[in-house]
Amino acid sequence: MADAPDQPAGSRRWKWRAVLLAIVGLFIIGCLYLVGRFTRDEPVTYTNPEDHFKYGSTGGERESGIPYWIWKVLPKMFPEYLPGKTYTPGKEYVSLGFLYEPGKDLPIGVSRRNTQGLDRVFLNCAICHAGSVRETPQSTPIIYAGMPSNTVDLEAFERFIFACATDQRFNALRIMSEIEAIGGRYDFINRFLLRFYAIPFMRERLLMLKGHFRFAEWEPDAGPGRTDTFNPAKTLLEFPLEKLETRELVGLCDFPSIWLQGLRKQKNLHAHWDGNNSLMEERNKSASFGTGAFPPTIDLKQLARVEQWLLTKEPPKYPFVIDAQLSTQGEKLYAEYCASCHGRNGRDFNGEYVGDVVPIDKIGTDRHRLDSYTEELAVAQNNLYAGYPWRFSHFRKTFGYANLPLDGVWLRAPYLHNGSVPTLRDLLNPGAERPPVFYRGYDVFDRAKVGFVSDVSRFDDEGRSKDEAVNPRQYFRFDTQVKPGGAIPRDRNEGNSNVGHEGREYGTMLSAQEKDAIVEYLKTF
User: Fold this and answer.
1) What are phi and psi of 489, to 5 degrees?
2) Of the four listed, 137, 338, 439, 515, which is most buried by Cβ atoms within 10 Å?
3) Is the dihedral of CA 397, 421, 355, 317 positive or negative?
4) Burial of 163 by CB count in 10 Å (0-12 exposed, 13-18 middle, 19+ buried)?
5) In a 3-state reduction of DSSP, which class is residue 355?
6) Which residues in the chain show pLDDT less than 50?
7) Is the CB of residue 270 less than 8 Å from the CB of residue 278?
C-alpha cells in the first residue's frame, strides 16, 4: 500500500492558524461575556411613580445588597430569631412589620437590582415612609405611601440579620442547600462565587456591622416606626463611640411623613426634627445612607424620580366622616393656638413661626435626639461627597426642635419627635395626663382620638391584640417613664419621655370639648 503523500506545509500552517483564531475568538467572547456580566448594573424599574417609590432602587444594592435568594431563605433557616419565632412563606419578614402587597415577592421598601451578574436586594425610602391602616381588625389594610412607617421594626430587622450571621449555620454549604430546597437556582459562576466569596464575605461584613451598631444596646429599644437617625452616621464616620458623652448616645426618633416636598422647598423649611438642614437635596442624599447608598454608589437618576414625585405628592384625605360643625369650631381654635407655628391648614404652610427652630427650654420635649446631633457630626457630614458637585454644606447644629407643617397629620401617629404620644387627643393633654405606656406597631385606626389603637387594655401580656385571635403578631410595648439610676441610658429609659409641648399656648389648658374640636379640624388636613 502506497504511503499517503505529505500535506503541504502551507496547508498545515493554515489549519494551525484556524485553530489559533478559534481559540482567540473564544477567549474574546469569554472575556466580553465576563466583562458584560461583572459590569452589569440593572435595577428593576417601574413605570408607575408610586411603584417606583415603593420598590425602586436608590443604589444601595451595589455596595450593601443581599443576594436575592439569601434574603428569601434566611427567615426559613433562622425563624427563632424573628419576633414570635414565626416564619411565613412568601411573606418572610412580615413578623418584623414589613408590608406585602398581593402579587409582590418582596415587601414594600425593598428594591432589587442585578449587579455584577447577581440579583441583590436592599432597602429603599419606602421602608421608613409607607404605612398601613385598617378601619377594623377584620378590614383589609390600606397602604399609604409617604406616611411614616407605623409597622416596620428596623432595629429588630438589624438584630435578626446580625443574629443569623453569628449562628454557625450561616455558612456557604448550608445556605446553598437551603436555597435549592426552596427552588432557588444559580448558574455555575454564581454558585462558585457564592460558595467561596459572597457568603463568607457577607458573614464577615455583618459581624463587622454588628460591632459598629453596638450603640443600639446602650439605648432603649426603638420599636416599630422609630429609628436612631444619626448614631449610625457616627459609626460610619468612625466616631469613637465609647468616648462620646452619655448625652449623645440616644438619638431615637419617629419616622416623619414626606408629602408636599415642593411646598417645603419653596419656603426653604428646615428638615429633620431638629431643623439641622434646609436643603432638600442634601436631606435626601443623607437619608439615602440609610438605604445603603453612599457617594460612589448612589443612583442619582433613580433617586431623582423619587424626589420629583414627592414634590407634589398629596397626603390622603381623611377617609371617615368629619363632624362639620365641630370642625368649624376647631378651625377657629386652631387659628388661635396652632397656626402661627404649623401653618394655616394642611396645604397652606404660612405662619409667623413655621419652620423655625423652637429652643428646647421653651418647647420642653425630650432633648435626647437634639443632644445626639453634635457640632462635630455636622462638620463631618459637611465633608461628605467631597470632590462631588453636590458636596454637603448645609448641615448645622441647632438648639431645639423645628415647627413642622401638619399636612396629613391624622396619619402621623404617634406624635412628638420621639413618637411618645399615641394620639392627637392625648397630645392636647398635659404630659401628666398622657398615657405612660401604650403599644406601637398596630395599624387599626382610632377615629375617636385620631391615631392607632394602642391602649394597653387591648393587648395581652405578650403584646398580641385581643381583638384578633388569629393574628400571631406581637406588638411593641412602649414605656415613656424615665427610670432613675442605672448604668446606661437603656436602664434609665432615656429618650422616650412624653412631656413637653404643653401649657396654655399649646392648648393643653382648653376644655375637653374645645380639644375635641381641634382634633376634628385636624382631620381635614
Assistant:
1) -55, -35
2) 439
3) positive
4) middle
5) coil
6) 1
7) yes
Residue 134 burial class via C-beta count within 10 angstroms: exposed 0-12, middle 13-18, buried 19 and up: middle
Strands (E), 95-211: 110-115, 118-123, 130-133, 142-145
Cβ–Cβ < 8 Å for 27, 119? no
CA angle (239 as vertex; 279, 377 as ends), nearest 5: 25
Q: Which three cell numbers stand for residue 114?
A: 442585578
Distances (CA, A) of 274 to 51, 172, 277: 30, 45, 9
Query: Dihedral (C-alpha) 69, 157, 170, 172: value to the nearest 10 degrees?
Result: 30
Domain range spanning residue 268? 42-522
What pLDDT, on the 0 to 100 scale, is given for residue 271?
A: 85
Q: Which of 455, 475, 254, 256 is nearest to 366 (CA)?
A: 254
**Residue 342 within any structural domain of the chain:** yes
| pLDDT score for 470 | 81
Residue 352, C-beta contacts closer than 8 angstroms, at least 6 positions apart: 340
Q: Are 236 and 286 in contact (CB under 8 A)?
A: no
Distance in angstroms between the alpha carbons of the first and the last residue of the chain: 105
pLDDT reported for residue 69: 97
Evaluate whether 95 touches 149 at the Cβ level (below 8 Å): no
Residues counted in the chain: 525
Contact 225/415 with Cβ under 8 angstroms?
A: no
Query: Which H or E run includes 148?
Result: none
Q: How far apart (Å, rounded) are the C-alpha atoms in residues 85 and 326?
A: 46
Give 11-45 pLDDT, tens digit per residue. 777 878 777 878 887 778 777 766 777 778 899 99
The answer to whether the CB of 73 falls within 8 A of the CB of 175 is yes
For residue 152 the three cell numbers come to: 416596620
pLDDT number for residue 7: 57
CB 265 within 8 A of CB 354: no
Cell (9 digits) for 445: 385606626
**Residue 431: all three cell numbers together:** 404630659
| pTM for the whole structure | 0.93
- Dist. CA 291–CA 163, nearest whole Å: 20
What confidence score (pLDDT) does residue 236 get?
Answer: 87
Q: How far is the C-alpha of 213 from the C-alpha of 324, rounded, in Å? A: 49
Show Cβ contacts of residue 355 under 8 Å, excluding neighbours closer than 6 positions.
267, 268, 269, 270, 275, 349, 402, 403, 404
Judge whether 429 lies within some domain.
yes
In the block, residue with C-alpha cell 430587622: 157
Instruction: Give dist(CA 273, CA 403) in Å, integer.
Output: 9
In a domain, 126, yes or no: yes
Residue with cell 474574546: 28
Helix locations, 197-345, DSSP H: 199-212, 231-236, 261-266, 280-288, 300-312, 324-337, 339-342
Owner of C-alpha cell 385598617: 134
Is 5 within a domain? Answer: no
Domain count, the chain: 1
